[in-house]
Amino acid sequence: MVGSVTQFPKYSIVIPAFNEGARIPATLESVLSCVRAKGWAAEIIVVNDGSQDATAEVVRDFARTAPEVRLIENSGNRGKGYSVRSGILQALGEVVMFTDSDLSAPIEEAERLFAAIEQGADIAIGSRWLESGRQTHRQPLYRQFFGRCFNAVTRGVMGLRFADTQCGFKAFTRPAAQTIFQLQTIERWGFDPEILFIALKRGYHVVEVPVSWAHDERSRMSYLRDGMKMLEEIAVIRWNALLGRYGKQVEPIHRPR
Ligand SMILES: Nc1nc2c(ncn2[C@@H]2O[C@H](COP(=O)(O)OP(=O)(O)O)[C@@H](O)[C@H]2O)c(=O)[nH]1
Ligand SMILES: [Mg+2]
Fold first, then answer.
1. Whole-prediction pTM
2. 95 Cβ neighbours under 8 A, 6+ residues apart
3. What secondary structure does DSSP assign to 205-225, as a single string?
4. 17 CB less than 6 Å from ligand 1?
5. Of 42, 157, 178, 194, which one is least surrounded by beta carbons within 10 A?
6. What is the pLDDT of residue 7?
7. Kind of pairing between the strands at 169-173 and 123-127
């Protein structure tokens, strides 16, 4: 647990947050009450990505009364990929997951990811498309369209045979998380296909788990601009692979004793 020197949490829940002052209080309430109701030994790490609003203060307020909550601050706005990596590499849990701040997948669904890991997966990724009936509020059609196109590209160009690479709800064993995120180079939206690509390359067992999902309209993404950037990032990933950058040896990160 945070603050304890001998015992580490079983689960780390990493939440990247950019200008989430409005959404994060309800998010932390839900995550905390879920963690406590289920009796999970968990830490909740919010990574503030250079927000210009009150995100950091709100999280600090929570942390005052909830020892499970930790705040990590980026030096400025560095991107979702950078933020998730930072949280995951500083996490202390045996199983490490990340979720979007809007909790589009309710945090209770984490149990399904944890169960998959319990059953032997190294990585369990949430999927909105395996059982699409679980989506109570779908993305608008144009976003579904972009999503499908991007999926076709990750399949064709990167060989990723997953129904949904982009779901912001993924869990890892500690060793898998440390290896993959130390090799990650993409710091903005295109980091998801990169971590999956590395995972397969390093021989990890990845399973897709259908999760419930309610799209939140207040998206932080600009589909056209960020979509173009993501295509460029796929080229970078291919290039990195060609240069053997994902085959490097990686040392585990030791937890403070
Ligand atoms: N836009 C944006 N979101 C970030 C950034 N860094 C972290 N995030 C977080 O990434 C998560 C996903 O954002 P969201 O708006 O829900 O994305 P969408 O639902 O996929 O459109 C949220 O938790 C954001 O706070 C960043 O630089 N830009
Ligand atoms: Mg969202």
1. 0.95
2. 10, 11, 12, 114, 117, 171, 172, 173, 174
3. -EEEEE--EE--S-----HHH
4. yes
5. 157
6. 83
7. antiparallel
Ligand 1 within 6 A of 16 CB? yes
CB of 139 sitting under 6 A from ligand 1:
no
Q: Is 162 in the pocket of ligand 1 (CB under 6 A)?
A: no
Ligand 1 pocket test, candidate residues 98, 100, 137, 169, most atoms within 8 A of CB: 100
What are the tokens at 206? 């990845």
The total number of residues written for the chain in this structure: 257
| Sign of the four-CA dihedral 118, 119, 120, 125 | negative
Average pLDDT value for residue range 146-174? 94
CA distance 102 to 197: 26
Three-state DSSP at 126 gives: strand
- Distance set, CA 95 to CA 2, 46, 123, 134, 173 (Å): 15, 16, 9, 25, 5
Cα separation of the two ends of the chain: 12
Q: How far apart are CA 93 and CA 16, in angstroms?
A: 17
Q: Please give the Cα distance from 94 to 217 (Å, whole number).
A: 33
Say what the pLDDT of residue 3 is. Answer: 47
Query: Which atom of ligand 1 lies at the shortest distance from residue 82's CA?
Result: 6
Range 143-169 average pLDDT: 93
Position 6 scores a pLDDT of: 52
Query: How far apart (Å, rounded) are the C-alpha atoms in residues 232 and 247?
Result: 22
Report CA(80)–ligand 1 centroid distance (Å): 6
Residue 1 confidence (pLDDT) above 50:
no
- Spacing, Cα 99 to ligand 2 middle (Å): 10
Which letter does DSSP use for residue 109 in this model? G
